[in-house]
Amino acid sequence: MKKGFTLVELLVTIGVLVLILLIVTPSLVGVINDSREKSFEETKRNIKGAANNYMIENSGNFPENVGESHTIEIETLQDEGYLKRNIINPKNGEIIENAYIVVTKITEDEFEYVLEYDY
Questions:
Q1: Which of 103, 109, 100, 98 is nearest to 61 (CA)?
Q2: In 41-99, where do the E strands start and end?
Q3: Burial class (CB in 10 A: 0-12, 13-18, 19+), 19
Q4: What is the side-by-side strand order in the sheet with 100-105?
Q5: Could you write out the DSSP letters of every residue in 1-43?
Q6: Are 51 and 76 in contact (CB under 8 A)?
Q7: What pLDDT score does 119 carry?
Q8: Which of 21, 39, 48, 63 has a CA 20 to 30 Å removed from the CA of 56?
Q9: Distance separating alpha carbons of residues 88 and 97, to the nearest angstrom
Q10: Does the model's pTM come out above 0.85?
Q11: Where are the domains of the chain?
Q12: Strand partners of residue 55
């Protein structure tokens, strides 16, 4: 009696493995991309929080009237110790440069923080 697998058995096994890879790979790539986007959204929330803390501690920088805006460069937040790390673009893994936060007074007690950056 011979020990081993026939060619048909090996081809079926390889076919099943390829089929599993074709099914799993797109799902895995989607999960990775989703986690990168969620990570970047969390980073943006942290940056907005740092900008809020900066504005509170430097109260003269708040826009005074509704509709007015003030710009804070991310580099300023890093230099002042409000942010410890660079912002990474989740799509390409590169450091985002020339980023800033635009703080706009929406109501008497509410401000909007928008992160602007080069892609």
A1: 103
A2: 69-73
A3: exposed
A4: 69-73, 100-105, 111-116
A5: ---S--HHHHHHHHHHHHHHHHHHHHHHHHHHHHHHHHHHHHH
A6: no
A7: 64
A8: 39
A9: 9
A10: no
A11: 7-116
A12: none
In sequence order, the β-bridge partners of residue 72 are: 101
Terminal CA-CA length for the chain: 66
> Which amino acid is located at 43 in the chain?
T
Residue identified by tokens 């809020």 is 52
Cα angle for residues 70, 60, 112 (degrees, 5° grid): 35
What type of residue is 82?
Answer: Y
Provide the 8-state DSSP code for 74.
H
Q: What tens-digit pLDDT sequence spans the chain (119 residues)?
A: 678 889 999 999 999 999 999 999 998 888 988 888 888 888 889 889 999 899 888 876 778 889 998 889 999 999 999 988 788 877 778 888 888 899 898 988 888 999 888 76
Query: Which single residue is written with the structure tokens 């590169």?
Result: 94
